[in-house]
Amino acid sequence: MKPKTIQSTSATTVSARPCLVVTLMALVATQVLMHAQPPSLVFNGTSGRLFAVDDQTNLHVNAYGPVVRLSATGTPLQTNTICPLYSKAARDAVGNYFFADVFSPPQDFGGVTLTDHHAFIARYDSAGTLMWAKTVGPVFVQGMGVTDLAVSSDGIAYVGYTVTLSAVSRYSALERFDGMGSNTWTSQKSTTIPGGVSAEVRFGPVTATNGFVQFFRYNSGNSAWAVDLERFDGIGARFGITSWIQPYTGNPVNNCARPVQNALGELFNVEGDQVVKRSGAGAVIWSRAAGNSISWTIGEDPFGGVYVSDQSASLRRYDFDGNLLWSLNTSAPVDRMINHGQSGRFISVNTGSSGRLTSDPSTLAPRLGGFLTSEAGPTFIIMGDAPAYRILATTNLTAWPEIGVVTNSGGSARFTDSDGTIASPRFYRAQTLP
User: Fold this and answer.
1) Local confidence band at 301 (pLDDT 50, 70, 90 cut-offs)
2) Can you tell me the distance from the alpha carbon of 351 to that of 285, in angstroms, rounded to the nearest whole number?
3) Which residue in 315, 414, 310 sits closest to 360, CA to CA?
4) Considering 357, 374, 402, which residue would you say is the last residue of a domain?
């Protein structure tokens, strides 16, 4: 296969360290590779909702009570009823399980009995032994629903819920729980609107100190969702990014509409009828028409792009620049996607089946992005799905000698130019190895 090269049409000069000026090629590609055919989708036959993929590429499926662990090819390895109630499930990087939902007290969660409140969160170790169980939300309400659970890689848990106080008053809230199960903060948002009959909370990507959240409020009067996209910090303060009205031509909430993030911290979301990419600070980078069927972002593409599903059961892949690479019919709308880099892309659909996508039939052209400065030299990220890249550099835009080769790991290869003898601005490009 002939090597594919991405070059720039302009450059930006930055200071990387004393006496060194480095020029990084702008993120404008002169070549866009379109896939002629989408990958295949292979279902594994296990009913339930995918919620985690571990380091051994085993799938963890919430099978309406029991947790089923499957191999990457769908072979059942273990079935374990961890939490006594079917509930929302998550898993952290070291294998601890988290469950959250509403319950009717009293309830024994495996050694701890909760006797009041309406909602819970429980943490179990990798063997299924209870570590702690805590109540969530207020004690006395007219109605309450836990609508989402998110867990950071290091075990910080966030629960999103909505409380109905009366027929005309409700609010949504986020609660943060640390590794010991202590509630470190609660952040409330009024979701009462004229004609409002329901409200939902959906988390985007989260870390131990911040994250993104999306609030939905349904108005039966005009058959529309009022949606707010916000981010929150380590003490629960929230900052608005954007808001829009989503006509009710389908229910994005039922299909787990959440913003997703790429390796550079950029955010993807479907806002109304547009697929939108924003910077980490919230500025719009590009937007593309989402089509006639209601759509939602479903998973990150570790090569800098995003996957989008819709009500008509179409799964679409967009690249870093918003180009549509392929579209695939999945038989039912996708409600979860976990991309495990080059080990596989795993999905579940809202009818309760899970499966994996086969490899794409060809390779994406590499992109340079995420330029950083460090003491060792200028550092940037190469995004693409090839196993390795050749790095070329020039000071005169004529000769492009090779200065290194990097291996792709999980979709993002990082290269640092540690040459301390550079005296002139240097331009870079990445080339896919044959």
Assistant:
1) confident
2) 34
3) 315
4) 357
